[in-house]
Amino acid sequence: MKSPLKTTSDSGFSLAEVAISVGILALVVLSYIGMLGTGMSNMSSAINRSTEGRITDSMLREVQEADWNSLDSEYSSDSSRTRYFDDQGSPVKSGSVNHIYTARLYFDEKHGGDTKAVELPGDEMGRVDRTSHLHGVIVRIANRPGGAGEKLLDDDDAFGSYREYRGTIVKLGKNRSDKRGSAGK
Amino acid sequence: MALMLVLAVTALLLILGMAIVTLSISENKGSKIMVDLMQVRQIHDTAVNLSLSQLRVGMEQEPDVKGREIWVSQPGALRTYKEDGALLRGIKLYSDDAMVVTSESDLVDDVPPLDWNSEANEIHFADLNRPVVRGERAFFPIVDPNAFEAGIEGFDFDENTVLGTVKTGAKKDTRLPMPVRWLYVLQDGTLGALQQNGKFSGPKTPSKSNPIVGRVAFWVDDEATKININTVGEPTPWDTPRAISPDDLSYGISQPARNEFQRYPGHPSTTALSTVLITDRDIEQQDKELIYERIPRVVGGGTFGGTQKPGAILKPDEDRLYATVDEFLYRPDREVNGGEYADLADEAEKIRQLRFFLTSNSRSPELNPRGHPKIAIWPLGWENKYPRTAYDHLVGFCSTIGGQFYGFQRYDAKSSVNDWSLIARNREIYQFLNNELLENVPGYGGDFGTKWDDDLGQVTTQIFDYIRCVNLREKAKSIGEASSGRPRFFAASGQVTPLKIPDGNDGTQGFGRFFTMTEFGLHFICNGHGEEGFQPKDPEPKLGTEERLVQVAFLMEPFSASHGWPALTNDFKVRVTGLNGFKIGEKPLEFPSVAEHRPNHLGRSWHGRSWGGPMGIRTFIGNRGEGYPFLSKRVKVRGDTMSFKGGEVTVEIFSGNSTDPKNLIQTIKLNFPEGEFPVPELVKTGTGSFRGGGATNAQYWRHFGGRYRQTTLVPHAPGAEYSDSKRRWPKDNRGNQPGFKIGGVFRAEDVVRTLTPYHSDNRLVAAQAEIDETMFLPGPNYQTTVRLDHHFNDTQGTHLLYGFGNEPGETSDENNSTEQLTPAKYHYSRLPDVRPGTGNFNLFGDFDNGVAQIHDGAYINRPDEGNVATRGQYAYFAWNYKNPTEVNFSPNRMMPSPGMFGSLPTGLKRDLPWQTLLFRPQEGHPGGESPPDHTVMEYFWMPVIEPYAISDPFSTAGKINLNYQILPFTYIKRATGLHAVMKSERPLAVDNEYSQSYKLWDHETSDHPWLPNDSRGNLDNRTRKQWDDLAKGRVKLRKRIDAVATLEQFEARFENAGIFKYPSEICDIHLVREGEKLTEYVSGDFQASHVVTGDNTRERPYTNLYPRLTTRSNTYRIYVWAESLNKARTSDPEAFDPVFDTVSAQFRGSTLIERYIDPNDPDIPDYAKLEDDSEETLDDFFQFRILESSRFAP
């Protein structure tokens, strides 16, 4: 009586079969890895973009709501203009293990920055100076955890490694600067 | 087999891989869209920020420019003017390639090009009003052009200015483009417009690394040009009655009930919502009631449109205020607005059409031209020392900022000094006001110190005292009296002692509500004659046959410039010194050297009235007979003439019953010149009875003991002694003849000589502490043989004292139009109390029409506190005055606005009679010289405190901007707000033709206290017919304003690139009435044919319009169209190519912003105490906030 197993053991994969299979598998796995890479990179850039969008929004809102009269003093140093965020765009403290994004505000040339102050067509003719109430603001965001992000932002030559978003803020508070330091928003 | 397995696994892996890739791609796209949306929101926010920046640039002071600038708003622009009136900047509130310009023509000529929608212009212009069409409906983001077909008043647009405009047709096909330029945004935030060649023009050039990433177009509407649904109403006009007309009669009978805000003059609720809501028919009472249902707090009922006497105080409803115009669709009870059968879809469409005309948030600042707080014109009790009512507290709240109150307080109506010396804040505010007026008026240049010279302090004192005398009889329960509930009036008697301010060289004095004396006279009567039978009684000496016994009384006539209601009960004393020098021939008349007199209630007599103005002499004499203190001894005189020797006399007027120097209000010096007078004849006839007046015998008239004994009784009635039969009264119904009666003072046999102010502008006498002898001059017949030379008056008319200036004879010299107050012919019973020739001084019509039937004169337009009369009579006209109760009380009704000051003299110190503050257009009037008088109104305000705090500290809701011109869309006209404002007014003008009948009442018409009937009266047929025509409305004295004709003046101003800098400039605009032509007003023909229309009457419509107008808005709506753009790699980075470049996201919407002030800001200084050179203004404390932001997604 013939054992059915024997029959099976007799008919193993041929070399060619194995070679082709491995070849196909390798090809597919490779292209799969390729796809996975593109997909992941797409994913991550999508996540970055929307997170950075949220960060920009919150940074601009923060500075719009800040006490206008002390903008120059309160946002004078790099550290006072820098905020840290986790992968969801939620603010975290510096040094936090969740710290992923580092964002920093930059004002226009009239306020310590190096970009041009906001001008409207015709300003020159009307001799209008808007710097007392209108700021151009740049939010520069680096997507590197820990101190690396901050270093990147410090490096002007690293443009490309961080992204910039722009907006304006306008003074909503009273014109007169406060004598007693009350909020002048 | 292995292959099969591998293939299966492979397929699975591939599917998984594809899924991941697809997912990531869509995730990526999604995040890109999100970021684009975020970016477009950011661009939108930038547009809002730029608009705010434009507003700030326009509203803030420019440190490098000398003087103070003012700003003026209009839809689409702000204009900033230098102090001298030159334009500093035009600030465009819409996206453009030149957003700041320096000439007005650059602003108004910046209309979009006709072919804005051509292919070439596609990259340049965005139509902010491009609709979204869905089915048969088009939804417009800004203005629905179908509003034109709907007949909304004041709305129109030109079809030919920009292509694509479709005015009429199917609702979904009409179009009204509002194209503005796109501003392009580079990645680094740089802004610029495209040049004609399509290239970006801005501070930077776009590049691959800094590409164009978005564009934005915006336009800012001024919410103050719209009608505010939280303050509007539907008016039924009301005014103090001033002439015979059905309107005026109804104003008397059906006075506004308390809380009937839609009838309070100058109240925002008198602005008409029907202008937009009911456009297809004349509005009726039921329509009004429907409108009141829609409006929060305003209710119907009350006088039911002026047709009934209100029975009770109205109770405002408790509807909450509308937060947005869209809420206007529903009532608070969730029913659809618009009546029982209203269809939701129709109503919704209507509301969409109304969005361009209505607002729920419009506010305007209440700062004076120098950016400081305006002064409230409602007086408050002095802090905690005098009671304040709930109204007072609200006014106080609105006029307090930084803890400081800006207004006047009062404490003591009986003192001329206490309200000045005790109340430090009054002194500060007074000084503040003077300092403000000494500074240039921004936008005009000049100052009032230069213009008025010595009169500046006088005018401000008059204003202060005017405010002090508002609201004399409002019952106030003070803090201490609350439990007892006893009312306390500021001046129950209606008398307020004038305020004296020790300022300037000789101080200034107000009017208070007090009396001065405006005519002084000598009344010579004959006591006896030497003829047989006429010898005087013992113990008088016997007279020779040619001798007469003569006695003289020194008379004076009290006058109060503060004419009107409430009743004025006098409390003063006069002291006369110097009469003892008077002689006839060489015989001393032996008047007392010093004598005092304290008259009883001057209004309490037959025909007496307590309304101020000329009070006559009868009640001044007051039944004293021989006890009258200013009588001479009797002297014998021989012959028909006598040599009178007068001299200097001093008359002092004291407040109250004491002659203590601190009560001295006025000292008047007189000089009676000597003269040859006729000798009085002995009265030889008695008189019969007539209409309640008793008969007299001749003896009654021969001595002051008789004649002055019953002066408060029925006086003389014009009778047979009048030369003109038309002026005689008819017999009474018992056949008795009219004529001299008990109560009369003069007979034809007497001799009367008087002194009066040479110009008859009694206001110039009333508000001066010391009058020298040059003021009062003898009458024209002083030195002639005419016996009676006087114009002593009587409260009820000028015909009741025999011999009045122009009687008997013509009422007015037709050949000499300067004889009377105006060139008009007056009825003999309503002659103004002026000396002949007064017309030479009254060059500008600066006199007041009396209340109701009372003759015209030199009054100060006292705020009317009401008179409700009794027994159903016509209040104000009828004799039976009654104080109004709280059913009729309202602060805003009394004091609509500072326009009330319009009858205060501006030339008192400079001796310029008949010149008052000019709050109306008048060619050649000195008040029109720069700075025009009307800008004085800009330093004051009346907070609107009912039905809720429509005013808050230094801003008021619902004011309409005079500058309705829309930039740059000048082809769209939206004057709707002004149409709505003007609907409340019925300006009164009296044609010269009716100058003899517009004031007639009572005896002259029928003796009937209600209305004239045919049974009595003594009018000639012509006058009777005229009177009938007026009383029954066949001839209209009050007419609606023709808004279209009136606004022609606005259009002309706008076409010349002009604008209204201050709302008071409404006073430069002729209010053309229906059926009349603007040209008549401009040429002056209208005024010349309506000369008896007084200054107060002419200025009243302006007084009521002014508080509802503005030229500066605190609220703006920003319409934005933002797009984020994707530049194609192949297209020119410096341009936007609509073929290759794409729009990646779009956002259309609007944002409502408000400029506001925090009244409790601890940094706000006390502006009344600033250093002279301080440039601090309240403008610096304004903040902005965003009230509402919405996306256009219909």
Quick description:
The complex is a heterodimer of chains A (185) and B (1194). With 185 residues, chain A is of the alpha+beta class.
Q: Compute the number of strand runs of chain A.
A: 5
Strand order of the largest sheet of chain B: 12-11-10-13-45-46-47
Count of alpha/pi helices of chain A: 4
Look at the structure and give the mean pLDDT of chain B: 91
Largest sheet of chain A: 5 strands, antiparallel
Strand content of chain B: 15-25%
The domain tally of chain A reads 1
Computed structural class of chain B: alpha+beta
**Helical segment tally of chain B?**
22
Neighbour order of strands in the largest sheet of chain A: 2-1-3-4-5
Helix content of chain A: 25-40%
**Largest interface here, residues on each chain?**
A-B, 64 and 72 residues
Structure in words:
The complex is a heterodimer of chains A (185) and B (1194). Chain A is α+β, with helices and mostly antiparallel strands and 185 residues long. In chain A, 38% of the residues lie in helices and 17% in strands. Chain A has helices at residues 4-10, 15-65, 71-74, 147-154, and strands spanning 82-85, 91-92, 101-107, 134-142, 162-170. Chain A has a 5-stranded antiparallel sheet with strand order 2-1-3-4-5. The relative contact order of chain A is 0.12. The model of chain A is unreliable at 179-185 (pLDDT under 50). Chain B contains 22 helices and 47 strands. Among the domains of chain B are: 368-508 and 888-952, no CATH class; 514-840, no CATH class. In chain B, a hairpin with a 2-residue loop joins strand 18 and strand 19. With 1194 residues, chain B is of the alpha+beta class. In chain B, the strands form 14 sheets. Chain B has a 7-stranded antiparallel sheet with strand order 12-11-10-13-45-46-47. In chain B, strands 23, 24, 29, 30, 35, 37 and 38 form a 7-stranded mixed sheet that branches. Chain B has a 5-stranded mixed sheet with strand order 28-25-32-33-36, with no helix packed on it. Classes of the chains: A alpha+beta (185), B alpha+beta (1194). Chains A and B meet through helix 2, strand 4 and strand 5 of A and helix 1, strand 3, strand 4, strand 11 and strand 47 of B.
